[in-house]
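Record passed on underneath.
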Amino acid sequence: MTRQLFVIVFLMVSLFASAQGAGVQCEDTCNHIHGLDMSHYQGEVFWETLGNNSHQSYVYFKATEGKMTIDATYKKNMDYARKYGLKVGSYHYYHANIDQEVQLRHFMSQCRPGDQDLIPMIDVEEKPSRMSTNAFCDSLHKFLLLVERAYKQKPLVYTGTYFYNTYLLGKLDDYKLMIAQYSENEPRLKDERDYVIWQYTGKGRINGVNTYIDKSRLVGRHTLRELWYRH
């Protein structure tokens, strides 16, 4: 009976320790500058809990996509994030087969300069199957130039390691990058390009959000000041 009790207690302690370990996040154990990427996929966010109990410094919120989609949680979450002291920025999910000026006007309808702490970000994840790589890059460059002229600063470009190495290699030398790679190892781009932010997981957890969340951190000696919106 005593031996059985010992085994039960041992198993309970082991499970508790495992649960505690699963709750430890990267930002709890390092000194990097950490941030989030959020959209309506996170559902209702309990900002008092998140704002008062996290090690996050910045959040990029999805504002728009293509020519019509507006993220329903964008404005509300922007207001709350700033209230709790996080630096905020906005991003547009780019579609290369939609007129660039139409997408710019759509983005500008939501991403107002006065609301921004960080430079705009353009999310580049898809290339139309019937569009050549050269045509795709030409389309993207046209859009990035339009964004730069409208906001008077170059946008940050978000993409994944594979997508960059396959389609964008050597094409974005004038732009700061956020690179997504969900692994324990930092991304390495084939052209040895430097990047400012590494999005290291799409399955992060944080108090105040009941779903998975994208987490990122600044790399090397980069600082958040490099991404500040110049008003």
